[in-house]
Amino acid sequence: LAAIEEYASRGESVKAEEVLIQQLRAGVRPAEACFDVVIAALDRAGDTGRAEEWLQRMLEASMLPSEASFARIVKATCAKGAADKVEDLVFSMLRLHMRPSKDVFDSVLRLFAGRQDVLKVEEWLLNAGQSGWTPEQAAFEAAVTLFAETDAVKAEEWLSRAQQTEYRLPDECYCAVVQAFTRAGRVDKATSKLSRMLQEGRVPSETAMSDVVAALADAGDVSLAEAWLSTFAGRATTPVEGLRFALFDAALRTGDAACAEQQYFQIG
Q: What is the DSSP letter of 204?
């Protein structure tokens, strides 16, 4: 071990590996720490392929790599984008009754977030939670924004989970949930989220607010559309005439002459 550590400390990963190979050829069963030192040396040298080979040899020989060795290979494999292999490595850790570190889970989550694989993001958020970790904020943001594209209820669920942590997700995440419910035809939920944002001092995007006003007008809910348009108009930096036309048409359809007249004069 001393010789291997000496070479490794000098950055001579090839020589450290050679010493380990010589021991194996001589029929000596090196200590697990010898493998860990070689894995770390090869990883630092950028030879992650060889480092992974030594990790696999340890597993095949029923030896127990250190958590640090696993973490090195997991992070390197994440960088290569090899998702299936990454999952196999982490599941190997769990089968060996190891507790992967928060950094390991964060690395896995970044990989799947980058691939926009929301189901895998959710799976690994849950896996991290079961291991007693709260992943980094970016993982929660990814779950919210990715689910917002397809499943408003799931997006809201992960926004709620994030609120139970120490993190403060950006206003964009809240807006994504508002717009998800608007697209799903759940304008009641969208307005509820908007109200909550304003109560918390958050700043809704103009797109989120205009979408809600347009949806309310389209649904014929003139009074509520008018109330939100007034709120929006006081914050907007862009013209709201288009929304006023939509509200004017909605008021005519529903027979609300007073609202129609008001919007007509404001448009004029």
A: -
CA 231, 161, 170, 242 torsion: positive or negative? Answer: negative
pLDDT in tens, 185-198: 999 999 999 999 99
d(CA 69, CA 267): 67
Kindly give the residue spans of alpha helices, DSSP state H, lying in the chain: 2-9, 13-25, 32-44, 48-60, 67-80, 83-95, 102-114, 118-130, 137-148, 152-163, 171-183, 187-199, 206-218, 222-233, 241-254, 257-267
Looking at 37-51, 93-107, 155-169, 211-225, which range is the least confident one?
211-225
pLDDT at 24: 84
In this predicted structure, the answer to whether residue 246 has a pLDDT above a threshold of 80 is no
Average pLDDT over residues 82-107: 94
Check: CB of residue 72 under 8 Å from CB of residue 51.
yes
Token pair recorded at residue 252: 């005519």
CB atoms within 10 A of CB 137: 16
Answer yes or no: is pLDDT of 23 > 70.
yes
Amino acid found at 169: L
Q: Which sign does the torsion angle of CA 164, 170, 175, 181 carry? A: negative
CA-based nearest residue to 142, from 121, 157, 156, 120: 121
Reading the block at residue 114, the tokens are: 């980058």
